[in-house]
Amino acid sequence: MSNGTTYSIIVPLYNEELVVNESYRRLKAVMDSTKETYEVIFINDGSKDATRKLAEDICKNDENIKLINFSRNFGHQAAITAGMEFSKGAAVIVIDADLQDPPETILDMIAKWKEGFQVVYGKRSKREGETKFKKLTSSMYYRLLKSMTSIEIPVDTGDFRLIDRRVCDALNALPEKNRYVRGLVSWVGYKQTSVEFVRQERYAGETKYPLKKMLKLAFDGITAFSFKPLVLSAYLGGSMLAVGFISLITVIIKNIVDGLSVLSLGVVLSANLIMFGMILCSLGIMGQYLGRIFDESKDRPNYIIESISYYKTADQKHELIG
Ligand code: UDP
Ligand code: MG
């Protein structure tokens, strides 16, 4: 056990003023019931509302709570990464702030950890209060990801999971940018299992994952673990080339036989549009990889911390650090 702390709970916060107090209340009730030592690490990912003030107030009254403030919004995955790097616990649990992941499930995860599992991920048996679009696209995406990668990324899981200190240290040693944490957890291996839970409705407020952020995360997942899109675009190019040759030979023969062109202008234009579309798609796929290589080569940090707040009880008095 590291530094005497048994559990570290990592909670990313982005404009969560409507949920942060309730989230704290539910987490505290669950973690107190373990009768073991714990720290809750809130990561304020550049919130523009009252999240920071509310989280600071919580820190002032509870020495188990720590708060990391980013200098701006770096994104959910960067927030989780910071939490993991800062955490001290023998087991580390990542959970969303909006109570869609029920804190009570942490107790089931802990039970599995005590049985000897080093990764316990939350598997969504049912999803409540989410749009049909989100459920459908997410289910399709996880299946696509599974078909494209050689490592076992479990379907229907998010970042709600418990990892052992050893797994956390292994993840912290990976230097890559544009992190897809749930994929990296599968990649590092160790003894893994799942616990099922019903994904709840968001407690309050709106999702902080608009389509743009969801797409970025989806591409991070695929590009970090698979070359298949590049291979597929090469196959596609090869097939188009073959079709092009066959059609060219057919047209020449037809022209020779009856002196007419079999291709109307419309057909030629449509074929061109399809081919240009495919070329641009392939370039786009390459761009997704290239952009990420660019990010790696710049080697900028995944996030910048503006301040860290927590109260320590040294000399029997509470003191604000950071
Ligand atoms: N989040 C974050 N930074 C962001 C977006 C989201 O820290 O840029 C946090 C957010 O506060 C929440 C978690 O990530 O605790 C998951 O976000 P959300 O619940 O909005 O996503 P959804 O459940 O709708 O996919
Ligand atoms: Mg949510």
Structural notes for this entry:
The chain is of the alpha/beta class and 322 residues long. The chain is built from 10 helices and 9 strands. The chain has helices spanning 20-33, 51-61, 76-86, 105-115, 132-148, 165-172, 181-188, 211-225, 228-258, 265-298, and strands spanning 7-13, 38-44, 65-70, 91-94, 119-127, 157-164, 192-199, 305-312, 319-320. The longest helix has 34 residues, at 265-298. The radius of gyration is 25 Å and the shape is elongated. The two termini are 26 Å apart. The relative contact order is 0.14. The model is unreliable at 314-319 (pLDDT under 50).
Return Rg in Å.
Answer: 25 Å
Shape: elongated
Uncertain stretches of 5 or more adjacent residues:
314-319
The largest β sheet comes out as: 9 strands, mixed
Helix share bin: 40-55%
CATH class of the largest domain: Alpha Beta
How many helices does DSSP assign? 10
Mean pLDDT: 87
SSE order: EHEHEHEHEHEHHEHHHEE
Major β-sheet strand ordering: 7-5-6-4-1-2-3-8-9
Q: Total number of β-strand segments?
A: 9
Category from helices, strands and their pairing: alpha/beta
As for the CATH topology of the largest domain, it is: Spore Coat Polysaccharide Biosynthesis Protein SpsA, Chain A
| CATH level 4 superfamily of the largest domain | Spore Coat Polysaccharide Biosynthesis Protein SpsA, Chain A
Q: How many separate domains?
A: 2
Quote the distance from N terminus to C terminus: 26 Å
